[in-house]
């Protein structure tokens, strides 16, 4: 079983932890618990490397820079063209 745990761990680029490896072993017909797989992984010194999810950070409110006043206050009506300009920034997360 230790060989199969090591195989699945390496085969999945060292990213799978005990929950996923347990499911793979159960599909192969082994009767094993997640805790047991975790203990075996600890014995073999196998730790999964999980990267944090990418998160877009759009605003940093914790700064000492001056904050500009809201001159429009949601009033976008003007008497002449080119007096008020508005924009929108849309972020998408990588898939």
From TrEMBL:
UniProt source species:
Paenibacillus apis
Q: Where is the HTH-like domain?
A: 2-53
Any single Pfam family the record assigns to this protein: HTH_21
Query: What is this protein's name?
Result: HTH-like domain-containing protein
């Amino acid at each position: 079983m230790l060989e199969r745990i090591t195989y699945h761990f390496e085969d999945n680029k060292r990213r799978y932890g005990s929950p996923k490896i347990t499911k793979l072993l159960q599909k192969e017909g082994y009767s094993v618990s997640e805790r047991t797989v975790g203990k075996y992984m600890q014995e073999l010194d196998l730790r999964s490397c999980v990267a944090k999810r990418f998160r877009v950070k759009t605003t940093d409110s914790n700064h000492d820079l001056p904050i500009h006043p809201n001159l429009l206050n949601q009033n976008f009506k003007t008497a002449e063209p080119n007096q008020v300009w508005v924009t929108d920034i849309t972020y998408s997360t990588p898939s």
